[in-house]
Fold this sequence. Notes:
heterodimer, A: 117 residues, mainly beta, 50% strand, B: 109 residues, 5-stranded antiparallel sheet
Amino acid sequence: GAVVSQHPSRVICKSGTSVKIECRSLDFQATTMFWYRQFPKQSLMLMATSNEGSKATYEQGVEKDKFLINHASLTLSTLTVTSAHPEDSSFYICSAGSREKGTDTQYFGPGTRLTVL
Amino acid sequence: KNEVEQSPQNLTAQEGEFITINCSYSVGISALHWLQQHPGGGIVSLFMLSSGKKKHGRLIATINIQEKHSSLHITASHPRDSAVYICAARRIGADGLTFGKGTHLIIQP
Lengths: 117, 109
């Protein structure tokens, strides 16, 4: 099966700092990457969709200036949480899809747990 | 009302029991996913369905498009099946998934 990695798996930062999370597809080209977030005891929520080489599409209520997404290559997408605050503490998960594997298939990364102090 | 509803929210069963988790959705979909999330948070994709039935080992997933309903079954359940099972729908015209709240399954030895 396809493998998607995320780095870091866990990060603790101070309020006001920025945190970058990387999502990589290791053995396939990810034409589309998705970023989700999950608050404790809540369902996963889609934050944004990014296609390689184009700007990300953000879901309603997600601030694009706060959650910067870059999908610079077919194997890497990054999510930067700028000026993080305690309410941004959450579990962030990426998933990747590719045309070669079928447009409906998504492969999930292991997630990044962000704690903002 | 959420677009994707799962039931039950929590389920505790004895090892060996037949398990059924239900998912109903209220929008038109192009695909429905069943996912498994372990305590550490990592997600494994179990099935992707657009019609009919799929089987993988002890897991069976079915979908009825007319009734907008899907079920995930686990036969001969085992403690290692303990996890959160999540139903997720891909709405027609959308790329990302809309998730149910998950079913927390505990299989006791």
